[in-house]
Amino acid sequence: MQRTILLIALFSVLTLCACQPDTESKPKKKSENETPVVVVVNYPLQFIVESLVGPEFEVLNPVPPDANPETWLPNDTMIQTIQKADLIVTNGANFADWVKKLSLPRSKVLRTSLSLKDALITVPDFEVHSHGTGGAHSHAGTVAFFWLDPALMERQAEAIAQRLIDIDPQQKESIAANLEKLKESLKSLSQKLDQLEAEYPGLHWFSERPVYQYLARRCGWTMHHLHWKQGTNLSKSDWDKLNTMQQEHKIPFLVWEHQPEKERVKDLTEHGVTSVVLDPLTVKPAQGDYVSEMQRQLAQLELFLKQRQTESSKSTN
To answer: Among 40, 160, 197, 253, who pairs with 219 as Cys (CB 3.0-4.6 Å)?
Structure first.
């Protein structure tokens, strides 16, 4: 009898244990108080995300301020941080080297170029070239600087907003309202580009590499990239190529991403080409934000074109 009672008791204990939840075999859910982390690959995407969210999200741009976001690579510690993020917002078009080299969880990656498939510009004569000390680098044919056209930046923002809402549905109304505010702020850039297109139609420009094609298309302008390497002396064939393109398309300008060397500017002037700087803002500006800095730069570009127009008028009179 006692043996029977012991067996019944042991069976009851085993049954009770089997009914308990297996806390170790199931993945732990993120705590309600834990802040979701969103990683971005460049400043324009950082600007978009920060415009859409508040302190409910942590926005991480892992690229140091003095590094090139196209060629920068993270260390082991940063790789672990990136891989643990709730969302990794990439640019697409092979913009950032580390995105291609890291093993990233697909479910967490948002490639914003996928929302722009119908608007992407490909350049047939891409080639491997260098960005400063970053080493050889190629963009694989598709121009990656979508945000230079405000309409495309809006579409990037819409795609990002939807993924943020998926992560935290409780923030849906707030994110949607912030998206509308962001679109409103981009209208000033669109209006300025409309003005420049109307006042200076059909312009042809030189650039070192394919960067400004989306902005140029927005204004009805044409960019001709030279594939010049920074810090290297130009060969006779480089200058011959410039002269041939210049004569064929009547190109009087070269737009630079950053302030060029004085000697290079002087050489271009002797070839009848004037230089102007328009930073694509892949890194955060020292002052202001994306919209305010683009407003400043477009106003500067407008002044440059007016001065050139005045000089051209004087020379023909």
So the answer is: 197
CB within 8 A of 67, min separation 6: which ones? 283
How big is the chain, counted in residues?
A: 317
Locus of tokens 């630079």: 256
- CATH class of the structural domain 187-302: alpha beta
The rounded distance, in Å, linking the Cα atoms of 44 and 280 is 9
First CA to last CA across the chain, in angstroms? 123
> What token pair was written down for 9?
């008791």
Q: Do residues 275 and 267 lie in contact, with contact meaning Cβ atoms separated by under 8 Å?
A: no
Q: Which tokens is 262 given?
A: 């004085």
Check residue 314 and give its pLDDT. 61
Secondary structure (H, E, C), 184-237: HHHHHHHHHHHHHHHHCCCCEEEECCCCCHHHHHHHCCEEEECCCCCCCCCCHH
pLDDT category at 23 given cuts 50, 70, 90 is: very low
The string of pLDDT tens digits covering residues 104-126 is 999 999 999 999 999 999 988 76
Q: Contact 182/48 with Cβ under 8 angstroms? A: yes
Cβ atoms 42, 61 nearer than 8 A? yes
Which stretch of DSSP H or E encloses residue 39? strand 37-40
CA 248 to chain centre: 33
DSSP 42: S
User: Per CATH, is 37-185 categorized as 3.40.50.720?
Assistant: no
Give 129's strand partners: 137
**3-class DSSP state of 178:** helix
Total-model pTM: 0.84
Query: Would you kindly state where each structural domain of the chain is located, as residue ranges?
Result: 37-185, 187-302
Residue 145: Cβ within 10 Å count: 24
Q: DSSP secondary-structure letter at 101?
A: H
Equal fold, 37-185 vs 187-302: yes
Q: Which H or E element spans position 136? A: strand 136-137
